[in-house]
Structure to design on (206 residues):
């Protein structure tokens, strides 16, 4: 009886080990023409996917969008973009419809999810997740990857790190607000890896 029970426990543990997917940090950033996804447009999104063990970026994604018909630009946000004309002009090239851009992103999620469990993170996550989640879910296409409801907040994690160490982390990665979604996603992802290590957080618990 004990041998049979032990055999079943070993089989169960082996099955769990095989089914457990490696965590993958999906750092992302968005650029918009306002602060409300109900009335303003998502202009671009950038993703960098970081391996927790190697600290390497294994994949990236970037897309500019055409904007949603009927939505308006927020005057204050456009005044902000007037200060960064070069960055704003980069958002106006190679723009795609939301359903086409997000279909490409969804397909990438499906491929990565064969091996990995995606852990979304942004900073601050509330704003970026609000726009990403809203526009992704409202885009209609087949075989959409389920992104779920959770996004980890880099700003919250950073609040547990002493200021002097935070400054060093940002300096080490030359991190600032570049206002280009792919570059910002990369910087956020690198800093997030440092913070997670500093706080001794097991990626499997994220």
């Amino acid at each position: 009886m004990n041998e049979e029970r032990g055999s079943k426990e070993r089989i169960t543990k082996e099955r769990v080990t095989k089914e457990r997917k490696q965590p993958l940090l999906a750092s992302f950033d968005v650029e918009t023409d306002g602060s409300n996804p109900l009335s303003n447009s998502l202009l671009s999104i950038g993703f960098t996917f970081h391996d927790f063990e190697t600290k390497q970026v294994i994949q990236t994604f970037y897309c500019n969008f055409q904007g949603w018909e009927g939505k308006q630009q927020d005057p204050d946000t456009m005044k902000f973009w007037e200060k960064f004309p070069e960055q704003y002009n980069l958002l106006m090239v190679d723009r795609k419809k939301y359903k086409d851009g997000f279909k490409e992103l969804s397909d990438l999620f499906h491929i990565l999810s064969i091996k990995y469990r995606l852990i979304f993170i942004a900073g601050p996550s509330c704003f970026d997740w609000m726009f990403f989640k809203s526009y992704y879910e409202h885009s209609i296409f087949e075989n959409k990857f389920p992104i779920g409801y959770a996004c980890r907040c880099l700003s919250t994690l950073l609040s547990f790190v002493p200021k002097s160490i935070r400054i060093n982390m940002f300096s080490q990665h030359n991190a600032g607000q570049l206002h280009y979604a792919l570059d910002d996603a990369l910087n956020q992802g690198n800093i997030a890896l440092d913070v997670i290590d500093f706080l001794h957080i097991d990626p499997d618990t994220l």
Summary: The beta strands are 22-32, 42-51, 57-65, 95-96, 116-122, 152-153. The domain at 22-205 is CATH 3.30.420.10 (Nucleotidyltransferase; domain 5). The CA atoms of residues 34 and 77 lie 5 Å apart.
